[in-house]
Amino acid sequence: MANNTFVGFNLPTSGQSSTQSEVVKELQPVTTWSRDGNYKVTRRWRGPIDSLIAFSNGGSTNADFAGTYFTGTSGILSGGAGRDGAITTEIVREEGGQIGVFSATWVTSNIAAAQWTGAPTAPATRGATTGDQFQESSLWTLDGNDIEKDVYRGMVMVECERVLEASSPGSQFGFVRRVKNAIDAYSSAKDKDGNGVPDYDEKAFDIEDYFSLIVPPLSLINLATSVLVNPPGTVTLLDDLKVACADILRGQEAFTISQYVLRNTKTTQYTSALVAHLANANRVWTTANIKALMLAETRTIDPPTSATNYDIPLLGVLGSSDVFAASKWLYRTPDIQELNNGKWQITKEFWEGADISLSTYKAYGVA
Q1: Of the candidates 228, 205, 251, 103, which has an alpha carbon nearest to the alpha carbon of residue 156?
Q2: Which residues, 6+ apart, have CB-to-CB distance to 200 below 8 Å?
Q3: 102-121 burial string, b = 16+ CB within 10 Å, else e?
Q4: Which among 170, 333, 192, 341 is positioned nearest to 267, based on CA atoms?
Q5: What confidence tens digit (pLDDT) does each residue in 30-69 have?
Q6: Whole-model pTM over 0.85
Q7: Predicted confidence band at 4 (pLDDT cuts at 50, 70, 90)?
Q8: What percent helix, strand, coil does the chain show, rounded to 5?
């Protein structure tokens, strides 16, 4: 336990060297807690500089005034600095440089162990299954990302195909291609048979001039009796189709649809065991898969004595929203960067998309 009554130093006894560590005495530790979900504990020892250096070198022969030594099999740092060791150590000189304070800092969820008995030990404080105590930050963001699709795959065209297929199975095949061919023919002053259009400069485009009204193969009759509800149809689906064709002739080539990018940027200390999930990149994840990952890698927000864990608003958004509840997400290749002082930054992105090709990308968890 730290020496709470420290006043000065015991002078070396006869036969002792002034560099021996027995004159080093421990001060009260400094403890802070952050909303990131961990304690930061700094233990401090005061004494002559040479004695502090001897103490920090470790081993039972370099114990302090209370018989505590810093490194070694049974020391504060079991086996020396490393994955379970202090994140920083330093010696600060004072009083002309002959005396100083040696300090060592840990990040932990177990304040009692770090204050008096040493550093936290694995696996309780790190790992991808319980929330890693050595990650400094984990930020989740949900960004909007509009992407362009070909105008011929717009809502009107898709609804036309649906109505045709419902009225006469198979009649929808080739519909979009024939619409495109009709517009291309008109743009070239040709009719549906490839002949020149009389008085072309005074002739407005009409899709009905390029389609047969009989069944099979295609019929516009069913389109003339159906209405596109959302967005509201002008009169019938055929009227909406004509408006869409007019837009294409005016130069529209694409339209935008909403896509969402769920991004996680995680900063870890060198002691962290978090991984970037490289094996599951370029696979299709469900919203449930992502929620499980968030729970596994998120520490408690409240102090360790609290029972409130994983209180993440974004989980509610992903789990209950009609937009995301059944979504599929393409997990992009993560980005890994080394920062200063041995820290690491891992960035993961999940691109939401209802039109992800399941023939191209395997589902998460499928070999």
Answers
A1: 228
A2: 189
A3: bbbbbbbbbbebbbeebbbe
A4: 341
A5: 888 765 556 778 889 999 999 999 998 888 889 898 888 8
A6: no
A7: very low
A8: 30, 25, 45
Specify the 3-state DSSP secondary structure of 337. strand
Q: Are strands 344-352 and 335-338 parallel, antiparallel or unpaired?
A: antiparallel
Peptide bond into 334 cis (omega under 30): no
Token reading at 80: 């020396």
C-alpha distance from residue 135 to each of 111, 128, 277, 298 (Å): 17, 11, 16, 9
Tokens of 271: 């002691």
Spatial separation of the C-alpha atoms in residues 205 and 186, rounded to whole Å: 7
Q: For strand 88-94 and strand 99-108, is the pairing parallel, antiparallel, or unpaired?
A: antiparallel
Instruction: Say which DSSP state 50 is in.
Output: H
As a whole number of angstroms, the distance between CA 47 and CA 101 comes to 7
DSSP 8-state class, residue 26: E
Closest CA to 298 of 320, 315, 319, 318: 315
Q: Report the percentage of the chain scoring pLDDT > 70.
A: 73
* Distance in Å from the first CA to the final CA of the chain: 53
CA geometry: angle at 360 spanning 318 and 174, to 5°?
Answer: 100
Q: Do 100 and 94 touch, CB atoms closer than 8 A?
A: yes
Judge whether 20 and 63 are in contact, CB under 8 Å.
no
The beta strand positions in 126-185, using DSSP E, are 135-150
Q: CA 279 to CA 29: how far, in whole Å?
A: 42
Where would I find the beta strands (DSSP E) of the chain? Answer: 25-26, 30-34, 38-48, 71-72, 77-78, 88-94, 99-108, 135-150, 254-268, 283-286, 328-331, 335-338, 344-352
Tell me the CA distances in angstroms from 121 to 113, 124, 328, one per residue in order. 9, 7, 38
Answer whether 336's CB lies under 8 Å from 348's CB. no
Dihedral pair phi/psi, residue 196, rounded to 5°? -65, 145
Q: How far apart are CA 349 and CA 203, in angstroms?
A: 51
What is the pairing mode between strands 328-331 and 335-338?
unpaired
